[in-house]
């Protein structure tokens, strides 16, 4: 669950229409109107990305008088479907994906089952990716791909593409750098082993 | 006669912390706090170049280090980006790092004839932090309007690597040439595991969100820093790379500057130096059985300093973080993933957060780093309503205060923390230079253990650590 405690306020006198905030808002809560930035308040998750990057210092984060929670209640979802998506993406459902909001893989999978087709829609349903805005984009893309979704890139810099994982590193690369302290196979065994342990524990 | 405390790092006005004037008392002013110098513990660590001399010594040393570096590829009129990181400015108040950056600019201009030299400073999770440092040290003026902060959400550039596409920040690479200007403190050993430590900013400070996310989610707890090597090894970066210039940090201060066209040779040299100096201090903290840790430094919680170490080093000091046979360290993002909703390890072999930390008193720190995990795993007391509110409103810490209690003032917080932890031992992370502010009991304990640790590191641990990384000590003598 993400607790939203503030929202963005745009000073239209200072805004010069550069679109920086529009290009980076992780939930597409900013649109351009009359060559100025405009906030869709009901979508704002209070992440502060716009305020932190506005070159004109035209945005301020203001505390909400009534903070609210964003997240999904997990009981209503088919657990086998959640497990299926998580396993394909090589995550245990209990694994934390967003360190800021504490959102776990199961909730991201649930958002996808509920219809999220992109990282932006996942964020709106779960709150994930609206804390630091940095660390959890790849696992979200991995979970979307595991569900058979190749999301359409937004018209900005919100995210670019999916990157490699430990499971895809070639033998050639592993061999080339083995002597320099990169323990790819040992890490893979460690992560696979933990997943297998948990699945067995769950089964017991 | 009582041994005085060391001066804690000065606070500064920043959008990430409460106003300095709001802080009523520093931990160094608490009754019963004294200090121990690193040189008392490990006299073999060399005297620092800085502090001990003024900043002109850093300038002179930067020039000396660059004298042996080949800059001949750079022609008059070429554009060049000096790539820096916010981390450098967090060392000893930032003056030494700023001076090194200025000296690099002047030396490159003098030797190559180009005056199109820009400064790009990367950040972690507080996107305006570099801007604050640029302003504070007047780097924009020094670089003639060509100094900017860059953030991981800024416009990307795709970089093809041996493990597929990764993404850099476009403005880091928007010049014909780059000079990597970093520092060598141990810092996030829980992330980089001292494998290619000097290369880390290629996978972090100069990298986009996708790359940083892959680092912390996709490559595994020991292989994460391969992301940095993959980017550095890309033809795109290699074609631009001129040299790496490193401010050599140690627990006593700045030892000098190292510059090289070969980043791997440099990284090996510096890895050895880190093990010899920071390695001993971290292993010494491993001997502490119980204490209260006080956070009282201008930085986010895990990046607050004590004798050059960061608090995150202490969080993981119960294991040998240098030992690569150990997959997980007690703290890292891979470790955070290893706990279930109730805070229990999801599988065997998850080392706990250092159980020697009986309680944490958060007297002063910055917001802007996901820190709920720390409060979930160690009893945490936050001093004052203003600090509590800072964290409550932090988008990266919406639940931090759900796991912490608030004390009216530092003295009350300390009394409560000592009761919880059942100890009088106190260690303060306040950015003091050259030593640790600690309780009298802990000072005596550390002095008693230091010789044993020195022997253990030099004779047993270092040979193992080096072998695991393919580094030959004699070749770097």
What labels would you give this structure?
heterodimer, A: 204 residues, alpha+beta, two-stranded antiparallel ribbon, 8 helices, 36% helix, B: 477 residues, alpha/beta, 7-stranded mixed sheet, 6-stranded mixed sheet, 18 helices, 35% helix
Written description of the protein model:
The complex is a heterodimer of chains A (204) and B (477). In chain A, 36% of the residues lie in helices and 17% in strands. Chain A has helices spanning 20-24, 49-53, 79-88, 105-113, 119-126, 137-146, 171-177, 184-203; strands at residues 2-10, 30-33, 36-39, 59-70, 96-98, 103-104. Chain A has a two-stranded antiparallel sheet with strand order 1-4. Chain A starts with a strand and ends with a helix. The model of chain A has no long low-confidence stretch (mean pLDDT 96). Chain B is an alpha/beta fold and 477 residues long. Chain B has helices spanning 38-41, 56-66, 86-89, 95-112, 129-136, 139-142, 189-192, 200-203, 209-217, 226-232, 235-240, 263-286, 311-315, 333-336, 372-377, 385-392, 410-421, 440-468; strands spanning 33-37, 79-85, 116-122, 147-150, 156-161, 164-169, 177-183, 241-250, 253-260, 291-300, 305-306, 309-310, 357-366, 380-383, 404-407, 426-429, 435-439. The radius of gyration of chain B is 21 Å and the shape is globular. At the A-B interface, strand 1, helix 2, helix 6 and helix 8 of A face strand 6 and helix 9 of B.
């Amino acid at each position: 669950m993400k607790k939203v405690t503030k929202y963005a306020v745009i000073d239209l006198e200072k805004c010069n229409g550069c679109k920086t905030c529009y290009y980076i808002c992780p939930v597409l809560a900013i649109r351009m109107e009359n060559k100025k930035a405009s906030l869709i308040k009901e979508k704002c998750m209070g992440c502060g990305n716009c305020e932190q990057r506005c070159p004109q210092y035209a945005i301020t984060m203001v505390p909400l008088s009534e903070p609210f929670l964003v997240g999904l209640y997990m009981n209503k979802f088919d657990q086998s479907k959640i497990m299926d998506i998580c396993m394909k993406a090589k995550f245990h459902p209990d694994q934390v994906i967003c360190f800021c909001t504490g959102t776990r893989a199961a909730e991201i999978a649930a958002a996808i089952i509920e219809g999220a087709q992109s990282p932006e829609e996942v964020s709106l349903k779960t709150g994930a990716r609206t804390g630091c805005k940095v660390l959890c984009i790849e696992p979200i893309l991995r979970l979307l791909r595991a569900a058979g979704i190749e999301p359409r890139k937004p018209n900005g810099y919100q995210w670019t593409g999916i990157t490699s994982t430990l499971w895809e590193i070639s033998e050639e690369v592993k061999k080339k750098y083995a002597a320099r302290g990169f323990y790819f196979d040992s890490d893979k065994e460690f992560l696979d082993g933990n997943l297998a342990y948990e699945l067995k524990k769950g089964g017991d | 006669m009582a041994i005085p405390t060391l001066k804690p790092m000065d606070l500064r006005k920043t959008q990430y912390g409460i106003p300095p004037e709001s802080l009523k008392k520093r931990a160094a002013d608490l009754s019963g706090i004294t200090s121990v110098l690193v040189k008392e513990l490990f006299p073999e660590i060399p005297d620092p170049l800085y502090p001990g001399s003024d900043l002109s010594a850093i300038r002179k040393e930067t020039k000396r280090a660059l004298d042996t570096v080949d800059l001949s590829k750079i022609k008059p009129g070429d554009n060049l980006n000096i790539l820096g990181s916010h981390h450098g400015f967090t060392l000893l108040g930032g003056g030494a790092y700023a001076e090194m950056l200025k000296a690099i600019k002047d030396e490159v201009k003098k030797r190559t004839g180009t005056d199109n030299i820009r400064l790009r400073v990367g950040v972690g999770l507080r996107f305006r932090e570099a801007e604050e440092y640029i302003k504070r040290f007047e780097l924009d003026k020094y670089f003639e309007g060509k100094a900017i902060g860059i953030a991981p959400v800024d416009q990307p550039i795709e970089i093809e690597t041996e493990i597929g596409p990764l993404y850099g920040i476009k403005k880091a690479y928007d010049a014909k040439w780059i000079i990597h200007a970093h520092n060598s403190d141990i810092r996030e050993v829980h992330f980089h595991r001292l494998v290619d430590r000097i290369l880390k900013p290629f996978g972090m400070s100069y990298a986009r969100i996708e790359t940083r996310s892959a680092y912390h989610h996709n490559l595994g707890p020991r292989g994460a820093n391969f992301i940095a090597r993959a980017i550095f090894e890309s033809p795109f970066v290699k074609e631009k790379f001129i040299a790496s210039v490193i401010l050599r940090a140690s627990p006593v201060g700045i030892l000098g500057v190292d510059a090289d066209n070969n980043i791997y040779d440099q990284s090996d040299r510096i890895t050895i130096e880190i093990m010899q100096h920071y390695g001993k201090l971290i292993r010494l903290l491993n001997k502490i059985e119980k204490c209260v840790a006080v956070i009282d430094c201008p930085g986010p919680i895990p990046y607050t300093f004590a004798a050059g170490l960061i608090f995150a080093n202490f969080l993981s000091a119960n294991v040998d973080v240098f030992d690569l046979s150990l997959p997980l360290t007690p703290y890292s993002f891979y470790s955070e993933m290893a706990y279930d909703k109730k805070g229990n390890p999801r599988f065997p072999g998850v080392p706990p957060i250092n159980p020697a930390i009986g309680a944490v008193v958060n007297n002063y720190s910055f917001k802007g780093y996901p820190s709920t995990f720390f409060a979930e795993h160690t009893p945490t007391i936050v001093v004052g309503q203003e600090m509590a509110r800072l964290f409550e409103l932090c988008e990266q810490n919406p639940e931090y205060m759900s796991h912490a209690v608030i004390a009216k003032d530092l003295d009350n917080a300390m009394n409560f923390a000592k009761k919880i932890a059942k100890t009088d031992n106190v260690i303060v992370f306040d950015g003091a230079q050259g030593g640790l502010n600690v309780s009298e009991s802990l000072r005596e304990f550390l002095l008693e253990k230091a010789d044993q640790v020195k022997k253990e590191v030099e004779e047993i641990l270092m040979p193992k650590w080096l072998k695991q990384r393919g580094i030959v000590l004699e070749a770097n003598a």
